[in-house]
Known about the structure:
It is a single chain. The protein is mainly β. It contains one helix and 28 strands. It has a four-stranded antiparallel β-sheet, with no helix packed on it. A four-stranded antiparallel β-sheet has the order 4-5-6-7, with no helix packed on it. The relative contact order is 0.11.
Amino acid sequence: MRHSFVKVTIFGLALALSACSSTASDSGRVAGEQAEAETQTKTEGAYMVYLGTNGAADAESIFIYNLNAETGELTQRGAAKGGARPTYLAFSEDRRFLYAVNEKGDFDGGKSGAVRAFSVDQQTGQLTSLNQVASKGTGPCHVSVDEQNGMVLVANYGGGNVAALPLQPDGTLAAATGVGQHQGSGPNKDRQEGPHAHYITPDPANKFVFAVDLGTDEVLGYRYRDNKLVPNEPAVAYACQPGSGPRHMAFHPSGRYAFVIHELNSTMAALAYDAGKGTFTEIQTITTIPASFKENNQCSAVKVSADGRFLYGANRGHNSIVVYAIDEATGRLTQVQLMSVGGDWPRDFTIDLTGNILLVANERSHNVVTFKIDKATGKLTPSGHQVQVQGPMCPVVVPAFD
C-alpha cells in the first residue's frame, strides 16, 4: 500500500507540475504577446509629426501625427487652430513650446504678419496658444529658435526684412527688439522687384545669424548687439549668382560647409564657411533637375542627413527630391538620385530623428508622402504610406510625449 501511495503521489505530482508548466507557458506567451504589442505601440508612437498648413484663421491648421519610424506610416492624433496660414513651425529645444508664423499682411491693424507661441502638453503633445506678436513685415515665411541668445527669428518675404523676437521664461514672445530691413533687387523683374527674405537661422555656434534673400540674391549676415540684430561686417556673407533667387540654406553637421538652394534657376550651391568672419566661399554649384526638363521649376527646401553624408533638395514643378552624396573632405556634391515626390509642389520636407524616413509636404496635391532612406547610399524608396491634408506646408518631427 505504501508502494502504491508513493506511485500515486509521484504521478499526481507529475500531473501538477505538467499543469503548472503549461499554465506558466501560456502565461509567458500571453505576457510576451502583451509586451510585444506594447513595444510595437511604443515604437509606432515614439515620434510625432507637427504639420503646418495654409489653413484659414478659424480652422484647425496645425495637424499632429504619430510616425512609425520603421514603416513611415502616419496616424493622426490631434489638431489645433494655429491662426491664418501657419506655414512654418519651430520647436524650443526642450519641446515645451512651439512657434508658428502666420503668413499674412494685416496683423493688429498694421502691415505685418505675426508669430504665434504655443505651449505643448508634455503628456499628449496637444497645443495651447499663448500669445501672438507682430513679425514686423508682411508675409512671414520662416521661423527659427535661437535659444542661446533668447530669440525667435523670423523672415518676412513680403516685407523684405527679418526680426528678432525675445523669448520670455513662460514661452511667450515679446515685441521685436529690432528689424533688419534688406535693400536691393535682382534681374528677374517678376520675382525680384525688391528684397524678399525667405529664411533665417543662427549659425552652429550661435555667433552669427544668416538671412537668405530671394529678391536680392544674397545671404546676409547679422550679429547681436544690445539684444538687437545688427548687420555683420561684411553685411553680405555670400553673393549668389544674379537671378538665381536663393531660398533656403542648411549647415553641414561639421559646421565647415553650408548648402544654399536657389528657387529661380534650380541650382544647389555648396559653400565653405568661415566661422570666424561669418562669410561663405563657393565650392561648387550644381543643378537640381535634369538638363532635359524645360518646364517651370521652383526649388524649395534643403536638408542634410544627420551623419553629414547626404544632401536633399526639393523641386516644385519637376516634383522631385534630388539626392546628393557629400564629399566630407571637400564639401563637393555628386548627384545620386532624383525621386518623384508622389504629389504636386513639394513645399517643404524633413528627415525623421532616426534618419530612416523622409517626409514630403506636397502643397497642391494636398498630401504628405513618406519615403524610406537607405543610410548606405542616401537613396529614397516610397514607403507606401501617405496622408491627405489640405495645403500641407511644413512637417517637423519630434520625440513623442508620454
